[in-house]
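User: Please fill in residues for this 101-position structure.
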């Protein structure tokens, strides 16, 4: 299948009993993007949803070891990394006391 350049991401939030709390999805439209960027934005939107519901503990399930590596490198992502902005947006939510601006 050819790459159309279209990307959609989404996620769900459930409580500790598996009951639906909310969900989201968003389209990137025609912007050129990668599956890694879609994954990063899905995490970001999911973290915002977790804050909305005042969840104290969350489990984030992702299938990209590369994205996980980027998030664990927070504070050490190269300034020239093309996805640094969204990585740091996630980092501010995951690690609020890290001192990122």
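Assistant: Residues filled in for all 101 positions:
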């Amino acid at each position: 299948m050819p790459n159309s350049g279209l990307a959609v991401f989404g996620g769900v939030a459930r409580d500790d009993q598996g009951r639906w709390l909310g969900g989201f999805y968003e389209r990137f439209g025609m912007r050129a993007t990668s599956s890694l960027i879609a994954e990063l934005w899905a995490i970001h939107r999911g973290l915002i949803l977790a804050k909305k519901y005042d969840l104290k503990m969350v489990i984030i399930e992702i299938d990209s070891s590369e994205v996980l590596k980027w998030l664990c490198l927070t504070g050490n992502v190269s300034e020239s990394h093309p996805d640094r902005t969204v990585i740091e947006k996630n980092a501010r939510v995951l690690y609020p006391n890290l001192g990122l601006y």
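For context: DSSP finds three helices and two strands in the chain.
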